[in-house]
Amino acid sequence: MNIAIIGCGTMGMAYAGNLAAMPGVKVTGVVDINAGRAEKAAAVSGAKAYTDVDTLLQQEELETVAICLPTYLHKPFVLKLAEKGLHIICEKPAALTLEDALEMKAACEKHGVRLFIGHVVRFFPNYANAYRQAHSGVIGTAKMAHFKRYGSYPKGMDGWYSNHDQSGGVILDLMIHDIDFACWLFGEVESVFASVIKREEPEMEYAQVTLRFKSSAIANLTGYWGYPGPFTTQFEIAGDQGIIRFDSNQVQSLDIKLAAGPSGEQAAVQIPSSPSLHDPYYDEVQHFIKCIQDGSEPRVSAADACYAVEIALAAERSARTGQPVIMGGNAS
Q: How far apart are CA 324 and CA 332, in angstroms?
């Protein structure tokens, strides 16, 4: 499969390295308005470097394009590439508004191409294992969860992260990982309540979101830009028979603690993460490419990605008004 990469920043470089190592895939072109970044990605991937998309499309025979651009640029490029009949792998979030995300989805359907949005957390072994364990009944019926995601305030990349109109802020850009996972785990959301704290100097944005699901499950989510420590992810998923816990700073496997059995003894089972030769970003893109090749359904659908945007924007609205937001149906 011939594939190109548009955007050669942090994620574009990750795609360049992974795609270069992927059997049956050839990176034929990489594009960035910064020639130095394009040349760097070209050196990693073995592709030709370009500084504009139109020249790439004129000179290369492509089947798929990976969009690793800032969020505010997703929609115009998805629409342009869909019209050209190209399949699209686009970094998350899909777009800054639900209307734009749905328009992107509809355009790809109209032109008969696939649209995949990179909600990569579903491909992280510990999260994927937690999803399977929670649905296996090992902790009974999963009813509550808490997800945390902490990182330094994103710098560089032309300053677009600090512009809320371009990045969407900590909820839409960072917490959306856990929003998507929580919806994958528990289903449709009934209501959203959120609060955000922001500081200009030094820059910090901290968000707390509570999701109440139609299944009666509840998830509390924390997202933090400006955290002074190492990048950290944590979660707890509680059922009526036990709890699944993960802390990226402490363990490399799931800690599943079950309720006491008939003997009164506590059971603690360590479930190691699945062995993997590649990182989750590799597995995610390889999965999307396989879906293109065999027509199978992806682990993350375009509708899932639109729904994550809808819930994230509801959280933004709740944080602005101080009131909970009652949700309607799933995005379609």
A: 23
The whole-angstrom separation of Cα 60 and Cα 257 is 54
Beta strands 87-91 and 204-213, pairing class: unpaired
Q: Mind giving me the DSSP string for 31-88? A: E-SSHHHHHHHHHHHTPEEES-HHHHHHH---SEEEE-S-GGGHHHHHHHHHHTT-EE
Q: How far apart are CA 298 and CA 167, in angstroms?
A: 25
Q: Assess contact for 233 and 216: CB atoms under 8 A.
A: no
Report the residue count for the chain.
Answer: 332
- CB-CB contact of 176 with 184 (8 Å): no
Task: Identify the helix (H) or strand (E) that includes residue 99.
Answer: helix 98-110
Q: What pLDDT shows up at residue 252?
A: 63
Once rounded to an integer, what is the mean pLDDT over residues 160-166? Answer: 89
- Reply yes or no on whether the pLDDT at 331 is more than 90: no
Contact (Cβ atoms closer than 8 angstroms) between residue 290 and residue 278: no
Residue 134 has pLDDT above 60, yes or no: yes
Domains (range + CATH), the chain: 2-119 (3.40.50.720), 121-280+308-326 (3.30.360.10)
Backbone phi, psi, residue 126, to 5°: -70, -35
Contacts of 219 (CB under 8 A, 6+ apart): 144, 145, 146, 147, 182, 185, 186, 210, 211, 213
Would you call 96 helix, strand, or coil by DSSP?
Answer: coil
Residue 97: which residues within 8 A CB-CB, separation 6 or more? 309, 313
